[in-house]
Structure formats: C-alpha cells, structure tokens
From TrEMBL:
This is Putative gluconeogenesis factor. One of its GO terms (molecular function) is LPPG:FO 2-phospho-L-lactate transferase activity. Gene3D superfamilies: CofD-like domains. The keyword Cytoplasm applies. Keywords: Cytoplasm. GO terms for biological process: regulation of cell shape. Belongs to the gluconeogenesis factor family.
Length: 327
C-alpha cells in the first residue's frame, strides 16, 4: 500500500501498518519551508528533509538509541547548529553526495534498515502557492498559513525553475500497483495537497485501481481548515483532483475529552472536525466512523492500530476485486 502525506500524523499510521506486516511505500511532501527544514533548504537548496526524516524513523528497524541520535535536535544555546536535527543534516549531506534527494533517501533507507520504501514526492524542492477565496495569492507554506484567510486552491512549482514539477517513475509505479492509496492524516493544504498537485502524481491517483482512502484529521487547523467538516476536507481534495476520487473516508466519531486538552500544545488547532455524513455520501464516498482517538498527556492523535486495521481490510477488499477482474 501507498501512504501519501507529511507532518506529525503520518508516522503514527506508518508505525501501525508496519506492525501489520503491510508492504508500505511512503510518499513524502517536499514543500515545507519552516523550521530546521526550511533553514537548511534556504542555505543549500535541498528538498526539505524534516518529514522525510520522521518517516524514515517510523519505518526503520535500527535500535531506539540510534533513532534517538538521528532525531536529536541541537539546543538553542548551540548557535551554529541551533534548532537543527542531526537527521536533517545527514539527509542534506547525502543529497550533496548523490546529487539528488531520491537516491539519497534510498541510500539512507538501506543504512537505517527501513522496512518498506520512502520516496520523496519530487526529486526537486517545491514551492507551495495558494489562491485565497478573496482572489489574492501567496507563496510559501509559512506565508500562506500565516495569512489566516480561507484558501481556495493550492498548486506547486519547482523552486529552482518555476516549472511544473514531476514525480519520478518509482512513485508513479507504486501508486498504480497499490491495493490501497492512503491520504493523510496531515495538514490538508500543506501536507496532502502539495503531493497531489504534482501533475503526474495526481494523474496516477486518478487512474489507479487501488482503494483511495482519506484519513480525516481529528482537529481543524488554524489558517487552513478553520471550522471545516469532514465532508469539506474531502470536497477540497476532490475539487483539486477534478472529480470524486476519494473512495473511503475514515472519520472520528468519538467525542474528545476537552478536560485533557492542553491549549498551549495546540495553538494551531481550533476545534474537533464536524461530522457531515450526508455531505460525504453526496461525493460517492464510503464512510467508516469509529473512536479513532488516542488522547494521552493532553495531546490528540489517531489511534494507529484502529486506523491500520481498517486500512488493511479495505486493501484486502481491493485486492480481491482486482483478482476477480483479472480472472
């Protein structure tokens, strides 16, 4: 199966699928321009490594101590390396050694004994562009989300040339051969759609016979999905793809215990995503709802085991349909 996205939610799902012995290909966003990733990108013109780093760790079979070293972020008192994660620096170094990010990540995957495949969505750094509902436009993920305006559409361009980007052939082959293509969880406009807006990658998602599954976010996100329902999340993806291409949506139906909620840890989030089952069905989207919440220490995550179980079942159904068609 193929999982497409970025951000902190993706490793949770990948970890759970790995425990199910699924054959996984993770296709990772390369348009982030913030934090350590953005800083490295600005200095040495490399694809942002942060999401790639986290995905590599989630699928790696190296020891926990080795993972901790790879994930270590230098303290702010270390002025030269302040805020940088060691893994980001290693990815940047391998990118220079190999001359491209795709080969760099494949090399590092072998070193880290990754169980599956990790593919950057593009071999070149991408710039995210957005048009807001009021007709204005903005460039760059950080600038777009800071405007606090409703986004109408997004697209990506090659950061160096300004041209339309492309995904490499292994990315396209993985999507076409998959039994399930999973979108999310992650920021709708800045982690999921940047991948789908790579023209040949989006076309592969439209054409694949795999079950296309969307894992809807639990919380709305400030500057991106303010007050969105689950149906509005799906509608935005379908609008960008140009049709009803989401086959199944996994949506949380359980109430969040707000007494355990720490606002200071979630200043970017607003409220639980509203359920709109009628709106989902109007988009020809099957709905699977459950208590998909894993809430601990005041943080809200998806319950990876429950989500992985549903994904596996959907993938098996798609595999059976494929075999019947082939016969």
């Amino acid at each position: 199966m193929v999982v497409i996205g970025g951000g902190t939610g993706l490793p949770v799902i990948l970890n759970a699928l790995k425990d199910k012995n699924a054959e996984i290909t993770a296709i990772v966003t390369v348009s982030d321009d913030g934090g350590s990733s953005g800083s490295i990108r600005n200095f040495i013109n490399v694809v942002p490594p942060g999401d790639i780093r986290n995905v590599l760790v989630s699928l790696s079979d190296i020891s926990q101590e080795e993972k901790n070293v790879f994930q270590y972020r230098f303290d702010s008192s270390d002025s030269f390396f302040s805020g940088h994660a060691i893994g980001n620096l290693i990815i940047a170094a391998l990118n220079e050694m190999h001359g491209n990010i795709f080969d760099a990540v494949q090399s590092l995957s072998k070193m880290m004994r990754v169980d599956g495949h990790v593919f950057p969505a593009s071999n070149e750094p991408l710039t995210l562009n957005a048009e807001f509902v009021d007709g204005t436009t903005e460039v760059g993920e950080t600038e777009i989300t800071s405007k606090d305006k409703r986004i109408k559409r997004v697209w990506v361009t090659d950061t160096n040339s300004g041209a339309k980007p492309t995904a490499v052939l292994p990315v396209l082959a993985a999507i076409m051969q998959a039994d399930a293509v999973v979108l999310g969880p992650g920021s709708l406009f800045t982690s999921i759609l940047p991948n789908l807006m790579i023209p040949n990658l989006g076309e592969a998602v439209r054409k694949t016979s795999a079950e296309v599954i969307y894992i809807c976010n639990i919380m709305t996100q400030r500057g991106e999905t303010d007050h969105f329902s689950d149906a509005e999340h799906v509608q935005v993806i379908n609008n960008h793809l140009g049709g009803h291409y989401i086959n199944t949506a996994l949506v949380n139906g359980a109430k969040i215990d707000m007494s355990k909620f720490h606002p200071e840890d979630y200043d970017a989030y607003l409220e639980p995503v509203r359920n709109d089952f009628a709106g989902l069905r109007k988009q020809d989207c099957r709905v699977i709802t459950d208590d998909f919440i894993d809430q601990h220490s005041g943080l809200v995550f998806h319950d990876g085991k429950k989500v992985a179980r549903e994904i596996i079942n959907l993938a098996l159904e798609a595999m059976s349909r494929r075999r019947m068609t082939d016969e």
